[in-house]
Amino acid sequence: MAFSPKISIFVALDSHILRINSILIFINMYPINGSFLLATDVLSGSYFEDTVIFLVEHSDESSFGFVINRSARIPIDEVFAGFNAKKRKPFRFFYGGPVQEDSVHVLEIGKPFFEHTPEISSGIWLKIVADNEQIPILDLFSNDTTRIILGYAGWSPDQLHSEIDQGCWEVVNPHPLEIFSTHRDETFNTPAEFKKNYILS
Fold first, then answer.
1. Domains of the chain: which residue ranges?
2. What pLDDT is recorded for position 200?
3. What predicted TM-score, i.e. pTM, was given to this entire model?
4. What is the predicted pLDDT for the residue at 85?
5. CA distance 172 to 181
6. What is the predicted pLDDT for the residue at 135?
7. By the 8 A CB rule, do 147 and 95 touch?
8. CB–CB of 160/105 below 8 Å?
């Protein structure tokens, strides 16, 4: 007999708590650090159409995060000038957003690779690579879960709350470590796929 999990829904302040197989999923009206933003149809035709964003920081002053469902395999020397990419297959890079698209960020999963990098969520560290900083690229890519992200998404004060009020984003809170512990090549294309894989399964 197939097992059908019982689903209980609780209401707490501005959020709904969805319990599925004893795993708590918070569906919030407003985000917190580590939330995921799922683009709705309101954003159709915009840069953010069908995007899923990992929100790294959210405060009254500003918010920023990374699009995590847009990526491509790119020769390393197209990202890091001077790197000898001969006989090296292209690696998967993620397009984090329209702000400073030439900036480089590293999400380290499970354990920190660099010293003195902030832990932005349990088991996840963020390294912001400075201009002309030398980093051990091949060592980073030897970890299947490491994400190297180009650019980011940012919001000015109250902008993100305004967009949520307009119905642009659905805010969900599966545990980030569960999302990023998968191989970086295990990608998803749309918010619907994200929900199917990580929230409704």
1. 7-198
2. 63
3. 0.83
4. 62
5. 18
6. 86
7. no
8. no
